[in-house]
Design goal:
The protein is of the alpha+beta class. The protein has 17 helices and 6 strands.
C-alpha cells in the first residue's frame, strides 16, 4: 500500500473480530490503531518515532554486553518469507519473566543499526494495532524523516494503562503512592508488570542512584523504605516534636516555641546517651541543636510556599516525611522487577505494603503528597524552588485535577 511518503505497509490479517470496540492499553496503541484504520501510515510512523520501542533479547546477552543491542527477536510476518524484527510499544509488553528481557530503543537508532535489508520491521505483532514494513535502506531514509521532526516540548502528564494494569483495589492504591514520580517522568502509573527503561537501564539506575547490584541489596533497600527509615532521622524528630506540641496545645505551633522545645529535646536526649559531659560532646550537641534550628526554618519556609501554591491548606502542616520513603518504595518495587532483582509476586507484595503503611500514617492523598514533596525538597532542593520542587508541584496539580487520576478515583482510606 503506497502513500505520498513512500511508506509501504503490509497490515497482515484483517482486523480482529470486535476490534472496533478494542480498548487500547494506552494512548500510544490507540493512536497507532486509529492511524492504521485510516491507512494513514505517515501518522503511524510519527507515533512510532515518538515512542519507546522494546525488543526482546536473551538475558545472557544483556549481562555479557550491556552496552550493545541485539536485534535477534524475529517474527514471521503474513507475507511469504517476510522475516521480521519485532518491536513493541509499552502498553503491549508481556509480564516480566527472568528470561528473555527487553531493551529500549527508538526509531532513529534503528535507522542506523538495522542489520539486513531483507528483514522487515514489525510493530506490535499479534495486536489490533500491528503493522509490518519493509526495511530497505530507502525505506529507512523515510523513517529517518519522521525522527527529524522538531520535538514537541516535554511535558509531564498522567499516563494510564487501561488494560493490563490495576485501576482499583490495594495494588492500584500502592501503585498510586508512586504516581508523583510517574507523572513527573510521564511513565504509566499503574504498570505493575514493569519494564521501565529496559533491563540494562533499570539495573544501571539502581546501581548508580541506589548502589543496588543484586537481589539482596534490593530487598534490604526496599525494607528500609517501607519502614520509613531511609529519610533523615533528624527530620522526623523535628517534625515529631511539632506534632506533639500541636496535640498538646490544640492549635498552631509558633516557630519560636517549636525551636525552643526541639532544643530541649535534643539536649535531653544527648544527656541520657552520654556517660560524661566533656567539652567535645557538648560542642557536638550544640552543633546538632544549631542544625535543627536551621532545619525548622527551612521546613517553615517550604510550608509557607506550599500553602501559597495550594499544596497545603491554610493552617495545615506536614507531620512526617515518611511518605517520601513510601512513595519511593512503590517505585522501588517496580524498578526491582524491571532489573529482575525480584519476582512479580515480590514486587506486588511490596506495592501493597507501601499503600498500607501510607494509609496508616496519612489521612488523604493531599496530606501524603505534601509530605512526599517536602521530603524530596529537603533532600534535593536546598530552598532553590527549582526543578526538584517545580516538577512535583506540577505533578501534584495534575493528580488532584485530572478526571482520570487515581487520586480522584481510588479512596485514600480503602474500606
Amino acid at each position: 500500500m503506497g502513500t505520498g511518503n513512500d511508506l509501504t505497509a503490509d497490515r497482515g490479517a484483517p482486523p480482529w473480530d470486535g476490534a472496533a470496540s478494542w480498548q487500547a492499553p494506552t494512548e500510544v496503541e490507540r493512536g497507532l490503531y486509529e492511524a492504521k484504520m485510516r491507512g494513514d501510515w505517515p501518522a503511524y510512523f510519527d507515533i512510532v518515532a515518538d515512542a519507546d520501542l522494546y525488543h526482546a533479547m536473551s538475558r545472557s546477552q544483556a549481562d555479557s554486553q550491556p552496552g550493545w543491542i541485539h536485534l535477534n527477536a524475529t517474527y514471521w510476518g503474513p507475507g511469504p518469507r517476510s522475516r521480521c524484527l519485532a518491536f513493541h510499544t509499552g502498553g503491549v509488553l508481556p509480564v516480566p519473566v527472568p528470561d528473555p528481557v527487553f531493551f529500549t530503543t527508538h526509531l532513529g537508532r534503528l535507522v542506523r543499526d538495522w542489520p539486513r535489508d531483507d528483514e522487515w520491521l514489525a510493530i506490535n505483532p499479534g495486536t489490533p494495532c500491528e503493522a509490518f514494513f519493509p526495511a530497505t535502506a530507502a525505506h529507512r531514509q523515510t523513517w529517518l524523516r519522521h525522527t527529524e521532526r522538531p520535538p514537541e516540548p516535554r511535558r509531564r502528564r498522567l499516563r494510564t494503562l487501561w488494560t493490563g494494569g490495576p485501576l482499583h483495589g490495594p495494588v492500584a492504591h500502592g501503585l498510586a503512592c508512586g504516581a508523583l514520580l510517574c507523572v513527573s517522568n510521564s511513565s504509566l502509573w499503574n504498570a505493575m508488570g514493569w519494564h521501565g527503561t529496559g533491563y540494562v537501564r533499570e539495573r544501571r539506575r539502581l546501581r548508580e542512584w541506589w548502589d543496588i547490584t543484586d537481589s539482596q541489596g534490593w530487598r534490604s533497600t526496599q525494607e528500609t523504605l517501607l519502614s520509613g527509615r531511609m529519610s533523615s532521622s533528624v527530620w522526623e524528630l523535628v517534625l515529631r516534636v511539632r506534632r506533639s506540641l500541636a496535640l498538646d496545645f490544640g492549635g498552631t505551633v509558633e516557630v519560636d516555641h517549636w525551636r525552643q522545645v526541639t532544643s530541649r529535646v535534643l539536649r535531653s536526649l544527648a544527656k541520657e546517651g552520654t556517660a560524661h559531659g566533656d567539652a567535645e560532646a557538648g560542642a557536638e550537641v550544640e552543633a546538632e541543636v544549631a542544625g535543627a534550628q536551621r532545619l525548622i526554618g527551612r521546613i517553615a519556609r517550604y510550608e509557607a510556599r506550599f500553602r501559597a501554591d495550594g499544596l497545603l491548606a491554610d493552617g495545615r502542616f506536614v507531620g512526617s516525611v515518611e511518605a517520601w520513603d513510601y512513595g519511593r518504595a512503590s517505585k522501588m518495587a517496580r524498578w526491582g522487577l524491571g532489573a529482575r532483582f525480584c519476582t512479580l509476586q515480590e514486587a506486588e507484595s511490596a506495592v501493597v505494603r507501601a499503600g498500607r503503611v501510607s494509609r496508616i500514617n496519612y489521612r488523604s492523598w493531599e496530606d501524603f503528597s505534601a509530605a512526599y514533596i517536602l521530603g524530596r525538597c529537603l533532600h534535593f532542593d536546598e530552598e532553590e524552588f527549582g526543578d526538584w520542587y517545580g516538577e512535583m508541584l506540577e505533578a501534584h496539580r495534575i493528580l488532584t485535577t485530572d478526571p482520570d487520576s487515581p487520586w480522584l478515583n481510588i479512596p485514600f482510606k480503602l474500606s
